[in-house]
Amino acid sequence: MNEQQALERVRRELKPVRYEHTVRVTESAEKLAHRFGADVEAARMAAILHDYAKYRPAGEMKRAILGTVWLSDDWTRYGDPILHAPAGAVFVKEELGVTDRQLLDAIVYHTTGKAGMSLLEKIIYLADYIEPGRTFPGVEDVRKAAETSLDKACFMALANTVTFLVNRRQPVFPDTIHAYNDLADKIK
Protein backbone atom coordinates (compact mmCIF):
# COMPACT_ATOMS: atom_id res chain seq x y z
CA MET A 1 0.00 0.00 0.00
CA ASN A 2 1.38 3.38 -0.94
CA GLU A 3 0.85 6.63 0.90
CA GLN A 4 -2.00 7.86 -1.35
CA GLN A 5 -3.87 4.58 -0.92
CA ALA A 6 -3.40 4.78 2.85
CA LEU A 7 -4.66 8.36 2.95
CA GLU A 8 -7.75 7.40 0.96
CA ARG A 9 -8.54 4.46 3.25
CA VAL A 10 -8.06 6.62 6.33
CA ARG A 11 -10.21 9.40 4.86
CA ARG A 12 -13.10 6.90 4.57
CA GLU A 13 -12.73 5.85 8.23
CA LEU A 14 -12.45 9.28 9.85
CA LYS A 15 -14.57 12.36 10.32
CA PRO A 16 -13.19 15.37 8.41
CA VAL A 17 -11.82 17.05 11.54
CA ARG A 18 -9.94 13.87 12.51
CA TYR A 19 -8.64 13.44 8.97
CA GLU A 20 -7.26 17.00 9.12
CA HIS A 21 -5.60 16.08 12.43
CA THR A 22 -4.07 13.04 10.72
CA VAL A 23 -2.63 15.21 7.95
CA ARG A 24 -1.08 17.53 10.55
CA VAL A 25 0.32 14.57 12.50
CA THR A 26 1.84 13.27 9.26
CA GLU A 27 3.52 16.61 8.57
CA SER A 28 4.77 16.80 12.17
CA ALA A 29 6.09 13.22 12.01
CA GLU A 30 7.96 14.03 8.80
CA LYS A 31 9.64 17.04 10.42
CA LEU A 32 10.58 15.04 13.52
CA ALA A 33 11.90 12.17 11.38
CA HIS A 34 14.16 14.57 9.45
CA ARG A 35 15.28 16.28 12.66
CA PHE A 36 16.11 13.08 14.56
CA GLY A 37 17.31 10.81 11.74
CA ALA A 38 14.38 8.41 11.39
CA ASP A 39 12.97 6.77 8.28
CA VAL A 40 10.75 9.54 6.89
CA GLU A 41 8.62 7.20 4.78
CA ALA A 42 7.91 4.93 7.77
CA ALA A 43 7.13 7.93 9.98
CA ARG A 44 4.68 9.33 7.43
CA MET A 45 2.93 5.96 6.95
CA ALA A 46 2.61 5.31 10.70
CA ALA A 47 1.24 8.83 11.18
CA ILE A 48 -1.28 8.39 8.38
CA LEU A 49 -2.55 5.16 9.94
CA HIS A 50 -2.31 6.05 13.65
CA ASP A 51 -6.01 6.91 14.14
CA TYR A 52 -7.46 4.39 11.67
CA ALA A 53 -9.81 2.90 14.32
CA LYS A 54 -10.71 6.15 16.10
CA TYR A 55 -14.44 5.90 15.37
CA ARG A 56 -14.99 2.17 15.68
CA PRO A 57 -17.43 1.06 18.38
CA ALA A 58 -15.72 0.29 21.71
CA GLY A 59 -17.07 -3.28 21.70
CA GLU A 60 -15.60 -3.95 18.27
CA MET A 61 -12.23 -2.55 19.37
CA LYS A 62 -12.22 -4.63 22.56
CA ARG A 63 -13.04 -7.79 20.60
CA ALA A 64 -10.20 -7.06 18.17
CA ILE A 65 -7.72 -6.61 21.01
CA LEU A 66 -8.90 -9.69 22.91
CA GLY A 67 -8.73 -11.72 19.69
CA THR A 68 -4.97 -11.28 19.30
CA VAL A 69 -2.08 -13.06 20.93
CA TRP A 70 0.27 -10.09 20.50
CA LEU A 71 -1.69 -7.53 22.58
CA SER A 72 -2.34 -7.64 26.31
CA ASP A 73 -5.93 -7.85 27.52
CA ASP A 74 -4.98 -4.93 29.83
CA TRP A 75 -5.74 -2.54 26.97
CA THR A 76 -9.45 -3.20 27.53
CA ARG A 77 -9.35 -2.23 31.22
CA TYR A 78 -8.17 1.40 31.13
CA GLY A 79 -10.96 3.27 29.42
CA ASP A 80 -12.30 3.56 25.91
CA PRO A 81 -10.13 6.54 24.83
CA ILE A 82 -7.01 4.39 24.45
CA LEU A 83 -8.68 1.48 22.63
CA HIS A 84 -8.27 2.96 19.15
CA ALA A 85 -4.48 2.66 19.31
CA PRO A 86 -4.04 -1.11 19.80
CA ALA A 87 -7.27 -1.91 17.95
CA GLY A 88 -6.10 0.33 15.13
CA ALA A 89 -2.96 -1.75 14.75
CA VAL A 90 -5.09 -4.90 14.58
CA PHE A 91 -7.38 -3.42 11.91
CA VAL A 92 -4.46 -1.97 9.93
CA LYS A 93 -2.90 -5.42 9.89
CA GLU A 94 -6.08 -7.34 9.08
CA GLU A 95 -7.84 -4.90 6.75
CA LEU A 96 -4.95 -3.13 5.06
CA GLY A 97 -2.38 -5.92 5.08
CA VAL A 98 0.30 -3.93 6.92
CA THR A 99 2.70 -6.37 8.57
CA ASP A 100 5.68 -4.16 9.47
CA ARG A 101 5.95 -4.70 13.23
CA GLN A 102 7.70 -1.37 13.85
CA LEU A 103 4.89 0.50 12.12
CA LEU A 104 2.22 -1.49 13.98
CA ASP A 105 3.94 -0.86 17.32
CA ALA A 106 4.10 2.88 16.58
CA ILE A 107 0.31 2.79 16.12
CA VAL A 108 -0.23 0.70 19.27
CA TYR A 109 1.76 3.03 21.55
CA HIS A 110 0.89 6.43 20.07
CA THR A 111 -1.44 7.30 22.97
CA THR A 112 0.34 5.67 25.92
CA GLY A 113 4.00 5.34 25.14
CA LYS A 114 5.98 2.50 26.72
CA ALA A 115 9.39 1.90 28.23
CA GLY A 116 12.09 1.48 25.63
CA MET A 117 10.22 3.19 22.82
CA SER A 118 11.84 2.95 19.42
CA LEU A 119 12.70 6.08 17.47
CA LEU A 120 9.60 5.62 15.30
CA GLU A 121 7.36 5.07 18.34
CA LYS A 122 8.64 8.28 19.95
CA ILE A 123 8.12 10.24 16.75
CA ILE A 124 4.51 9.11 16.30
CA TYR A 125 3.72 9.60 19.99
CA LEU A 126 5.16 13.11 19.91
CA ALA A 127 3.80 14.10 16.49
CA ASP A 128 0.29 13.22 17.68
CA TYR A 129 0.84 15.28 20.82
CA ILE A 130 2.36 18.42 19.28
CA GLU A 131 0.67 18.71 15.88
CA PRO A 132 -0.25 22.38 15.22
CA GLY A 133 -3.96 21.88 15.92
CA ARG A 134 -3.31 21.00 19.57
CA THR A 135 -3.91 23.92 21.93
CA PHE A 136 -3.98 22.47 25.46
CA PRO A 137 -1.85 23.81 28.34
CA GLY A 138 1.81 22.81 28.13
CA VAL A 139 1.88 21.90 24.46
CA GLU A 140 4.02 24.92 23.50
CA ASP A 141 6.71 23.90 25.98
CA VAL A 142 6.74 20.39 24.52
CA ARG A 143 6.97 21.80 20.98
CA LYS A 144 9.95 23.90 22.01
CA ALA A 145 11.68 20.91 23.62
CA ALA A 146 11.04 18.88 20.44
CA GLU A 147 13.28 21.26 18.53
CA THR A 148 16.34 19.81 20.26
CA SER A 149 15.51 16.65 22.22
CA LEU A 150 13.09 13.90 21.31
CA ASP A 151 13.49 12.21 24.70
CA LYS A 152 12.93 15.41 26.69
CA ALA A 153 9.86 16.32 24.63
CA CYS A 154 8.36 12.83 25.03
CA PHE A 155 9.11 12.95 28.75
CA MET A 156 7.35 16.30 29.08
CA ALA A 157 4.34 15.04 27.11
CA LEU A 158 4.13 11.94 29.31
CA ALA A 159 4.38 14.06 32.47
CA ASN A 160 1.56 16.28 31.22
CA THR A 161 -0.57 13.25 30.38
CA VAL A 162 -0.02 11.60 33.76
CA THR A 163 -0.82 14.87 35.54
CA PHE A 164 -3.97 15.36 33.43
CA LEU A 165 -5.23 11.86 34.23
CA VAL A 166 -4.36 12.00 37.93
CA ASN A 167 -6.05 15.39 38.33
CA ARG A 168 -9.22 13.85 36.88
CA ARG A 169 -8.84 10.73 39.02
CA GLN A 170 -8.68 8.56 35.92
CA PRO A 171 -6.59 5.42 35.63
CA VAL A 172 -3.15 5.68 34.07
CA PHE A 173 -2.22 2.86 31.71
CA PRO A 174 0.84 1.06 33.17
CA ASP A 175 2.92 1.50 30.00
CA THR A 176 2.55 5.28 30.36
CA ILE A 177 4.09 5.15 33.84
CA HIS A 178 6.84 2.85 32.56
CA ALA A 179 7.54 5.22 29.64
CA TYR A 180 7.70 8.18 32.01
CA ASN A 181 10.12 6.38 34.36
CA ASP A 182 12.26 5.14 31.47
CA LEU A 183 12.65 8.61 29.98
CA ALA A 184 13.17 10.19 33.42
CA ASP A 185 16.28 7.98 33.73
CA LYS A 186 17.45 8.80 30.21
CA ILE A 187 17.24 12.58 30.45
CA LYS A 188 18.95 12.95 33.86
TrEMBL record:
Q: Name one GO molecular function term.
A: metal ion binding
Might you give the EC number(s) for this enzyme?
3.6.1.41
Q: Does the keyword Disulfide bond apply?
A: no
Query: What keywords are annotated for this sequence in UniProt?
Result: Hydrolase, Iron, Metal-binding, Nucleotide-binding
CDD domains given in the database record: HDc (cd00077)
Catalyzed reactions: P(1),P(4)-bis(5'-adenosyl) tetraphosphate + H2O = 2 ADP + 2 H(+)
Occurrences of domain HD (ranges): 18-133
Q: Name one Pfam family in it.
A: HD
User: Which branch of life, at top level?
Assistant: Bacteria
Q: List the PANTHER family.
A: BIS(5'-NUCLEOSYL)-TETRAPHOSPHATASE, SYMMETRICAL (PTHR35795:SF1), SLR1885 PROTEIN (PTHR35795)
Tell me what this protein is called: bis(5'-nucleosyl)-tetraphosphatase (symmetrical)
* Species: Alteribacter lacisalsi
